[in-house]
Amino acid sequence: MNPRTLYRNAPVKYKLILIAVLATGAALLFAAMMSLVLQWFMIRSELVASIKSQARIIATNSTSALMFNDPKAAEQTLGALGAIDSIEFAMIHDKVGKTFVSYVRPGATLPEPHQMPEGEGYFFTPDRFEVYYPIIFEGEQIGSIDVHTDLSALYSEMLWNLAMLSAAMLGGLGMAVVLVSRLHAIITKPIINLVGLMDRVTREKNFALRAEPGGRDELGTLAREFNGMLAQIQTRDDELEQHRTHLKQLVAQRTARLTEAQRIAHLGNWESDVANNKMDWSDEVYRIYGFTPQQFEVNYEDFRHALHPEDRQFVEDRIREAQEQGHPYSLDYRILWADGSVRYVHGQAEVLRNDEGQVVKIFGTVQDITERKLIDDELMLAKQAADAANRAKSDFLANMSHEIRTPMNAIIGMTHLCLKTELGDKQRDYVEKAHHSAKTLMNIINDILDFSKIEANKLTLESHDFDLRATLANIDSMVGHLAREKGLRFATSIHDDVPDFHRGDELRLGQVLLNLASNAVKFTHEGEVTLSVNLKRAEEKVVELEFAVRDTGIGLSDEQVQRLFRPFSQADASTTRQYGGTGLGLVISKQLVEMMGGRIWVESTPGQGSVFRFTARFGRGKAFAAKAAASSDELAAAHAKLRGANILLAEDNPFNQQVAAELLEEAGATVALANNGREALVLLFKERFDLVLMDVQMPEMDGYEATRKIRATPRLDGQKVIAMTANAMAEDRERCLASGMDDFITKPIDPDLMVLLLAKWLPERSGITRDEKQVADLRSGKNRRSGGDRRASGTRKEDGVIDLAILGHLVGDDPAKVRKFALKFLETAQKTLDEMDAAQSGGDLAALGGLGHKLKSSARTVGAMSFADICQSLESTGKANDMPQATLLLGQLHPLLERIARQVEQETA
Amino acid sequence: MKKLEKAILTLLCVNIFACSSISAYAAPPTEYEVKAAFIHNIARYVEWPPTPDNAPSTMRLCVLGENPFGNALDILHNKKVGNLAWEVVPVASENNLKKCRVLFIAASESGKLRQILDSINGSAVLTLGDVDGYAERGVMSNFYLEDSRVRIEINTDAAKRAKLNISSQLLKLARIVQVSGVQESGGAK
Question: What is the CB-side half-sphere exposure of residue A559 using CA atoms within 13 A?
Answer without folding.
Answer: 1
